Amino acid sequence: MVAVEKALEQYGAPIYVRKQIVHNVHVVKTLEAKGAIFVEETDEVPEGEIVVFSAHGVSPAVHKEARQRQLRTIDATCPLVTKVHNEAKRFAGQDYDILLIGHEGHEEVEGTAGEAPDHVRLVDGVESVEHVQVKDPSRLVWLSQTTLSVDETNETVARLKERFPTLMDPPSDDICYATQNRQVAVKEIAAESQLVIVVGSENSSNSKRLVEVAKDYGADASYLVDYASDIRDEWLEGVTTVGVTSGASVPEELVEEVLAHLAGFGFDDVREVQPVDERMRFALPHELRKDLRAS
Question: Distance (Å, rounded) from C-alpha 205 to C-alpha 210?
Answer without folding.
Answer: 9
